[in-house]
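Reply to dn_fold:

You asked what the input looked like. This is it:
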Amino acid sequence: MLARYDLKMPHAVFSGQDALEKIRDILAENQVGRLAVFTDRGIRGAGLLDLPMAQVQQAGVDAVILDDLPAEPSYEEAQKLVDQCKACGADFIMAVGGGSVMDTAKLASILMTDEYGIKELLDTPARARKCIKTLMIPTTAGTGSEATPNAIVAVPEKQLKVGIVNTEMIADYVILDAAMIKKLPRKIAAATGVDALAHAIECWTSNKANPFSDIFAMQALDMILNSIERACDDPDAMDAKNRMQIASFYAGVAITASGTTAVHALSYPLGGKYHIAHGVSNAILLAPVMRFNEPACRERLAAVYDRCICGRETTVEGKSAAVIARLEQIVKHLDIPTSLTEFGVPREDLEALVASGMEVTRLLVNNMREVTPDDARSIYLEVL
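and this is what came back:
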């Protein structure tokens, strides 16, 4: 556990019934003249953008909608949308979408300048400073991007996803309104929900875990482990969906205070080369990595059992094993694939996967148990 630690969060977070109505107050408070709205065509096509845009229209604010963003964008694709934002003359950014949308909007908030672009920030992210305030409205629960200082982009030449981390990207405002995830397809709700679960349990078992991150990671785990299945299965379970949305935010705060570990590190090559959805790749690796880590974090996993499961296990070993079994049970219940063969990943690519995964030292250093290339190879083989 860290001896020194800090906690940085969005300036203001709004949740609960009709939370979207706060948009009008936020725009008025910041005297917004022109609003840049980051989203994607899937969100627009599903009608989800209509809910927040109704509030923007009531506020009488001119808005430019930027939606030309693919899922899991490369840094060049994200830069294209950032350039459109720079050209539109906006003085405030609102993001309505999942992780990729919010990450790109956060990048735009520090790139309203010609001094550097996303490519430069891949190597020197600390040089950037916030140029424009942001409001994040997540449409999944989720990536936790609304709470973090991270932006993930694909780097095609490396066949890898890379995280740009700079606390200047932390959102100024966040709105968590369960109406935004009410109609989320089960497949997407499942993948993004397990992503939040991975955030929470990785931060709880991270080398950088500390009293700040522990508060948010454990509360997120309690809410997710006891809500995720109902939130995904029942379209009308708004209470469970609201808990998942808040838990996703909490897990994002835990990332900011601590950090994810080998699950995310080894999943990045899967998204970068094979374009497997981020939440799915994390789900595939979640139990295998946690089984590998278990000897180094057994007491911490047992604490999760005591808080979140409360069954009949009495030994530390039994409690720890039960938590990992619960992770597997959730992934299976949600019908998320557990093998890379379903995505056409050939065994011949194993060494390339190992090499790429071992490059993600930013996260591997957080892992309580050291991951060697041989260890990474064994973990990948388990899911090939």
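Strands lie at 12-15, 34-38, 62-66, 92-97, 134-138, 150-155, 160-165, 173-176.
Hope that clears it up.
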